[in-house]
Amino acid sequence: MASIRARLTTAYAATLVGTVAVLGAVLYAGQREATARSLSARARADADSALQVVDRVAADGIPTTTNDTLIGVVVTAALRTRLELVPDYVLVLDSTSRTLYNSAAVRQLDPDDQVRLSQVAMRLRVAGPPEPVALSDRQLLLGSGAPAGLPPGLHTAIYRVVAGVDMSTVEAFPRELLATEFIITPLVILISVIGAYVLSGRVFRPVDVIINEVQAISDGRSLHRRLAVDGAGDELRRLSETLNEMIARLETSFGGLRRFTADASHELKTPLAVLRADVERAITAPPHSTEQLVALEEALQETRRMADLVDSLLTLARADEGRFDIFREPVALDAIVREVGESAVILGEDAGLTVSILVLEPAVVRGDATRLRQLFMNLVMNAIKYTPRGGRIDISLSHRLDGVTFSVRDTGIGIAASDLPYIFERFWRADRARSRASERGGFGLGLAIGQWIAQAHGGSITVTSRLGRGSVFTVHLPAATDEPARADAETHAAAAQI
Length: 498
Ligand code: ADP
Hints:
alpha+beta; Beta-Lactamase; Helix Hairpins; Heat Shock Protein 90; 3 domains; 53% helix; rod-shaped; binds adenosine-5'-diphosphate
């Protein structure tokens, strides 16, 4: 948990640092660009205003240049006075790149810088983009303009006017910005990271509580306990609800497992005790006496019962594990039901019951013939076991569009409505004492296995019953898909009383 918190905080800090760094860089570059643009505009504007001064003087009919006997052509005093009013670096050049005028700012530069400046100034394209020039201690941005549209005679010597602005002002502002960023950013990041750490700690505290609670519940003896569910529909609430559902399922299946083990041991304990008593009786009885034979016969019966029980347990255990392979081949159910019916008629006669096959329609399902026979036989045997002498048992197999239906109706003791929900549970018997005492002798596993067989075939078993009136067990199975449904199939009805 702490590691998720630490990892989250680190990831957050990394993202924050990255974002702030990118933002700072973009901001710095943007600001630099904007300042450079405004400087370019200023350089051009300075050149324009110097040019306007020249043009205005010329327009007033005042000469702009004059020939000085000592230094050659220079700007006239009238133009010089006005040019001095233009700020920054201003140069007026003739066509041979000789400087006719330098502003005060230019004059203050050292001679090398002045030469460098006039060289670049000469190279500049008139009305082209401003160009930087590196001097010994500063950088200037130069903009250029040339007099136009005036009578050429008036300022023949003036070829171009160049103005420059100091670029250090460009650097100054972004550098200040950078310094501010360097001081503020770590502070902001530190505060945010501390905030994120505290916040994620608060977010994960309920998870900590859930872990502790689950640990307490999963000790094996507290599966009845549940996690407290609070929070307004957030992920933690869903987590608690999901864990509660899982714990409930675990509780049910552990309970089932405990019951199953207890029931299985109980069911094995009784026949073992009987077996032991029988063997003891056989040992003590005179050899080959009737008493010894009866005891051995009983021991054999108990052994058979135990073998049956172990067989059923094995079937269910394998079914639970999903290890039981059910064959999938076309099975003609009518043939199986006829066979089961014939056996039922014979067994029914012994029990004083009338067994009839009322409907026997041809039907094919995909499945396991042995398992399906076991399922039908089980239902029929139950009907025989739980129907008193003189009763009736009706068997039918019908094929409809929605599948195949096998049903066994008896006029037996029936099942109480309150018991109906449990009859498919393992080891469940309506009346255990009566079942054993009356030699009906089931283990309460037959219907559980039957239900598994039906479900493994994609079908189901349902039951309707009234206490004292009888029961109807119905198995519904899907028909084989390659076998067209034959709702109107020939009905082998009234094969009654075979
Ligand atoms: P058993 O081997 O005890 O018959 P089953 O799983 O087949 O086990 O049946 C479970 C219980 O359901 C039986 O013990 C019985 O109480 C009840 N039962 C099953 N079939 C019938 C029926 N046809 N009529 C009345 N009760 C039945």
